[in-house]
Amino acid sequence: MTFRMQTLGLAAFGGLLSTTALQAAENLNALIWCDHADAALLEPFEKAHDVRVNVKEYEGTAAGLTILEQSRPGDWDVMVIDGVDVARAAEAGFLAPLPEGAIDTSGTFREVALADAMTVDGKLYGVTEKYGYNTIAYNKAAVDPEDMKSLKSLWSGKYDGKIAIYDYYMPVLGIVGLAEGVDTADLDAAALDALRDPLMKLRAASRQVSDVVGSQTALATGEVDVLVGGGEWLTAVLNAENPDLDWTIPEEGGLVWTQSIAMVEGTEKPDLAVEFIKYILSPEGQARLATSSCYWGMPANKAAGEVLTDDQKSVLRWDEQEGYLARAQLYPVPDAETDTAMQDLWTDMLQN
Amino acid sequence: MRYLSWAYLAVMFGFILLPVAVLVVFSFQDGRLPVPPFNGPTTEWYAKVLGDRDLMAALGNSMLVALLSSAVALALGFLAAAGFAQTRLPGGALMRGLIIAPMTVSYLIIGLGLLQMFNWAGVRPSLMATGIGHVVINLPLCFAILSAAIGAPQKSALKAARDLGAGEAQVLLLILAPMIAPSLAAAFFLSFTFSWDEFIIAFLLTRFDVTLPVEIWSMLRSGLSPETNAVGSLVFLVSVLLVVTLELALFRKASK
Amino acid sequence: MSIERTEKRLGAGLAAPALLWTGAFFVLPFAAMVWMSLGHLEGRTVVPGPDLGTYARIFTDPSLYKGIRVSLEITATVTVLSVLLAWPLAWIIATRVPARWRRLALLLAVLPFWTSYVVRSYSWALVLGEKGVIMNALTGLGILAEPVQILATRAATVIGFTHFFVMLLTLTIYSNLVQLSPNYARAAEDLGASRWQVIRLVILPLTLPGVMTGAFLTFVLCIGDYITPQILGGNNELSLPQLIMLQLGRRGDYPLASGLSVVLMVMVTLAYAACARWLKMERV
User: Fold this and answer.
1) Considering the domain C64-283, what is its CATH architecture?
2) Distance in Å, alpha carbon of B23 to nearest chain C alpha carbon
3) Which ipTM did the prediction report?
4) Given CA atoms A139, A143, A149, A154 in this order, what sign does their dihedral have?
5) Residue among B223, C121, C147, C150 at smallest CA distance from A215
6) How close C62 gets to chain B, by Cα (Å)?
7) CATH superfamily of this structure's domain A2-131+258-319
8) Per-residue pLDDT tens for C81-113?
């Protein structure tokens, strides 16, 4: 047996050495959301620049900033971060300003450019790369699409036990706020108190609070018919399996999420980092990012429209963006105290 | 009573084997959803798994961490077991207790403690850090198995060898190790298995290079796909082949 | 220098690397964690203690102390259920199955050990879903009119856990059973005991060490597991490990995560103390 183990070990070691040998001279370390882990997105850049892009996934800005805090300067070169959090992260010293004029943002959809939110003291710290909606996704074979035009249907009792909630506090609290007539911009500690009751009622009406896979499974298999917090990022990949899966933005509105790409303070490879950002924002990079294996989303750069196929565009609802963007609101931008209160409320909701 | 026994056996085997059977069947699912109805077989997902750069790298990483951490745990456990076999040590019970202690603690606690200590010491998360954690959980196991294997005959052989003037290294490597070779193999094999399948420590202590369970977890987090079934089935089939080979090899040896 | 002293020095020298390793990578990290639990988070920075605020929070915040209860309830249910299911299985394999098939039967009974742990939980999610194999079969055969929700409830978590621990307990109880001399049973039968009496009064008590070792391992592994409740429980209630990972992942609250881990550690230690008289950990 030991012999066999040795052989296995040697084989593994040999395999490892060969991958190390193949590794390029340079590394770019990226703290990302899962859509950036797609090899189809990274490989063209790696080949063109002879680098290896190391990625680490995270979820939620707080978790991302914790990772940065625990790292040393130079550990990270670029990061993907929630568009509305760029200024906060920049002010806390996590991000490096982008060199002036290096990045062309003229093609970005106006509503999601968020130029103000990404500029601190006249310096640009991030660029929007992708966006989409947190709203209601549903199975139109099981749900009356008319009902989905109003968020109030969720509390009507008609869909009790057939609702799933996406397990991310920020967008879902935003949606509950919209249902109660609170704009995301006004979501503060006081407003939050008023949301506790409707949130708990929504929880009582729903079957589960789950992550992406749990939500997809439940929706695709008919265990639930409505997903609060869902959108094209969740239904697009299932489109081929179950064309009845749909999503909409109700009258009260929905949330638009934006993700932006930024350079991390302390990077020792600012030039390479900028090259990577340029690649991600190029029409080809944008098209690959929009249709990445983890989740789909609208590319922020209109120029990606030339690269995407008509089918891809129709799944992304390219032509309807104007109307959607007009109705949707940006993510809430809570201060630290409100953020903690939101998370506490969310934990209470999960646990009760 | 007899029929009841067989019925119970059948029901329990059904319960135990059902999820694995479902896993394997739906790894051949033609379509994105690994749930009934079964749309007919395809090997598409296996091709995808084998062509997945990250997954294959994770496989290599797991192999490396499991081999090295098991080797270290085995070496430390062997030395300690030999040390305690020599003679009664002052405070021996306490020291034994200390070495055994990690076995009675949740992996989550060990992982979290190491994470904080490494953060504080400025050590970056890595496969090395994960390996260190795996030695912590496997050292007690190796120590316990090897201690149990060193009985009276081994002890007197050690004493005799020493009286005849053998050096300590000779005594350990040429006398003791061959005498307890089956236990050494068993301890190594068990450690390897635990390290290979360990999730939470690896999850907390890795960054870019991850082990297989962590890679599978992030696959699972990013979307529903029979690809997860295919990975699971492959790991399962390879492990079972290994176990059956071992079983046959040992069984044959035992019956000779 | 006497021979005995040389031997002592040598023995201590051989044990030293293992002791140092355990000290550096187990005792020290644990101490660091306890120290961390005595601090608290202000904004994004940890304020070192010592203060007991974290523990006060754990025992006054309903969401947190409910986690302790949830974990204990799940673990107790799983441990009892697994023992009850595994004992007869081990007994049947050890005594009813013909000797030449015994090893094969045992191998089959623990076969799923060899799938990846993460994948095993996931495959239960596929089995237990409303469109899963079980519900499909039950509704298809007309046994159930409507599928019943199992996935995303505590029942799913308990089933997933029990599946794993039945295998573990079957192993420990089986190895205990085969070590028993058949003479015990024969003697009892000669003295007029019925077959049930033999099992209940003779064999069962003699397998107590195997049962307790397995039950303790079940307790430790079950109460500290994050994967199974996370995949199968549907976030409808949070166990202690889930709460710990939530504190780490969502907001980097290390003091609270550490405090919860210390509570977890205390529970495991209490369980150990309760089972200690039957456990021979150093001889597994």
Assistant:
1) Orthogonal Bundle (1.10)
2) 6
3) 0.91
4) negative
5) B223
6) 23
7) Periplasmic binding protein-like II (3.40.190.10)
8) 999 999 999 999 998 899 889 988 998 898 888
